[in-house]
Give the backbone structure.
Amino acid sequence: MNLAVKWTSLPVVRRRFVRYTLFAAAVFLLLTLRLWYLQVISYEELYERSVKNRTRLLVLDAPRGAIYDRNGDLLVDNRPSFQISVLRQDVAEREELFARLSRLLDIDPDVLEARWREGLRLPAYRPVPLAHDVSRETMERVQEHSIELPGIFIETRPVRDYVAGGAMAHVIGYLGEITEEELKGDRFSGYRGGDLVGKVALERSYDEQLRGIKGQQLVEVDVQGRLLRKLQMEAPRPGRKIRLTLDRELQQAALEAFGEHAGAAVALDVKTGELLAMVSLPTYDPGQFARGITSEEWRALLNDARNPLQNKAVSGQYPPASTFKMVVALAALREGVATAGRNIHCAGDMELGDSRYRCWQRRGHGDTDLHKALRESCDVWFYQVGLELGIDKLSAAAREFGFGSETGFELPGERPGIMPTRQWKRTTLNQPWYAGETVIAAIGQGYILSTPIQLAVMTAALANGGQVLRPRIIAGIEGDGGEMAAVVHPDVRRELAYAPEHWQAIRSGMEAVVGEVRGTGRSAGVEGSVIAGKTGTAQVIRRLSDEEEEQLTGDEVIPYRNRSHALFVGYAPVDDPQIAVAVVVEHGQSGGRAAAPIAGAMMENYLQRQD
Amino acid sequence: MFDRRLIYNFDWVLLVTVVLLVTAGLVNLYSTTAGWNGAATPFYLKQLIWFALGLAVALGLCLFDYRRLQYLAVHGYVIGVGLLLVVMVSGRVTMGAARWIDLGFFNLQPSEVIKIMMILLFARLLSKTASAQGYALKELWRPALWLLVPVALIIKQPDLGTSIMVVLIVASMVLFAGLQRATLVCLGILSAVVMVLGWFNLHDYQRARIKTFLSPDNDPLGSGYHILQSKIAVGSGGFFGKGFIQGTQSQLSFLPERHTDFAFSVFAEEWGFTGCVILLLLYFFLIAWGLYIARRAGDQFGLFLALGVTAMFFWHIVVNLAMVIGLMPVVGVPLPFFSYGGTNLVTMMVGVGLLLNVSMRRFMF
């Protein structure tokens, strides 16, 4: 070290101080530029991210719209249900917790564990449901023990309350969890996985109106997702209330009249086409679906041979049998094939080629005109007239009445039935039409299939003088302001042109069915009302040959599946028709004995409340 | 014996700068921990106590002539290394790292002690051997050995941050003393080799941090989380900040380690670019003033001592800030005078004491 010149005062050392200071300045400038970049240039993006960090959007479910009947009686509502849920972040000792909870709820700990695992896909702040719709007692038991159950809490959630129970099940339908495909489609936009959507019937058709609009709530959370405070809320808009044209009491009366029978009944307002009743039996309890149906319950419904899940009123297809005869008669009158006074001798059967077509009355009806043919349901009269009319004209007239196509009813699942023509047979069976097929078509058998709702539409048209109405079920839908916007009826699809005397001839025949001594539908009679109707008995298997029939002993029991369906259509009162009814009792054997009393009970119930 | 000139020459500028920084740190700490409860003594109060203690130590260090320290430098070094060995054998293990010696009333962190000891040792070393020509490579092997022993021990702890700090401080001092051109080139190559070798000897978590730094968005919830949340905090502060105790990132705990290593993020979020620039200016002034003290030091030892302390401040500040604003991988280095933490604050106040000492004795010769 050179003592002559102090090291510290060397110019190179002085320069180093300057350099170090400049270096420090440069580094601080760099830091400042970086801060400028983050805080000024990237500010908006990073601010946004800080907001997203601390806020979560919670969805608030909208209560589903209630459904009322035509008189304002509640059919479906929402009721609060208690749900036991767990907030995952508050649980420390899960096993111990579930052991305790399982004793209180009487649910296996493994089930709780499984639900917990299902809930893992939810965000941390979303409670995981452990038990749905528990009873008030269970809820209270859990509440009492809440100190020993950290993280467990009780949520009240609205569930569908099917006040009308099974009576309305097929009309109203039920809800179920939305499927993957439904989520992908447009129909259920706004839904998320796990949401309940309408699966069948009205709940499905009017899902959009019933569902309401979900609300949302912006909440502030901390890093663990714990909810700190509510920031903004957009209240959910409840689903719209819907008022139906159905009459709850009439529906109930129909259900009771059926007893243990299976089948379907439809009642329409003759003038407007409003659906007054629609039952399908056996029915099911839609409450099962609201609670969350178990797989055993579901399997039982699916495997029931009597199809409780099917709405037979719109999708059950039956031969109209003798209830079809009015259509044949009208066509024959209009086409000039027969007059009301046309006399045909019924000896119990009619021969055509090699075949013999028997009347249901083996003795025969003797000399028969239209009035008698309807009253006593003489098959031979219609065989003859139908044959002369021909399948083309017969089919055309029937189609006008609505056979062979959907009625345009609002509920999903409606079937068109079958109204055969030559063309139909050629395309579907690749066979020519035979005259014998016209003969049995004239008594509503053979290829013809119809739904109960089609029969009701036909009956209403017979009653109102030819208006084929579209059956309607919606009486009103709640508008934006909460008012009920009435839906205008009727919706007339076709006006049928028949001469007044033709209508009259049919009317008197139908009146005689119920009102005259030899009428087949006397059991539909209602005290104090004049009723028009027609019975029908539809074979499910071919009519027995003479030989087979001779082998039958009198009281041999026909197996249920082979028994004929019993039908009845009718309207009342005759001078000012209001209600038209169609009843099909599956395997009820006799229209007059099984179906007519049900129709009578329905008409009576309805009419007695009208004045 | 106590010269009245010493009081006359007392470096109020330095002290005021430090007090301002500590005050900013306390205000920030108050905000950061506003929502915390449960602790008997609030954090800002604890920090205030530590500062009082540090201030007492700093003023105590002014009582004697710093030049006496050169004769104690080697002893201090030996004690420092000894403490590192002790902690290696019996230190308390926290988060997989043995760094502290529990002294009952506080946890002594030998790696903090060694920073000061290294500054003293190299100030003595360099003041005796610095020449106009600068060092040749062969003159450096002995100082290199002095350096590598404690650095190796600290890496072993493992505490990468502190070891980097020690190397940077010493390197700054040696570089100031002067190196021959050839030496400079050799050392450059050598450090490049060390870095490459070092990569393969890093702990997994350390390597992950570096990888994460290079692409933090790849793993926003994993190890990239710290950097990302810190960047969001800083950036969302904007020009004027969200306001005192209004930072959502910090108040809602999205920021990790927000009272210690990431204290600046909280400050940046709540005070914005404006606040940051003011704070950075203060820090820069501290560094510039430290260099100024070194420059007008009475002797070479004083020069290197002041330079070393200033380098210690500088590297801590820069490494911490660069980490917090996403310019560097996460290394656990606190922000001097600002982050919560007693040991570090006391260490930094010892540095302040040394600077004050050098500054007030500049006319003694």
Remarks:
- The longest helix of chain A spans residues 11-41.
- Residues 521 and 592 of chain A are 5 Å apart (CA to CA).
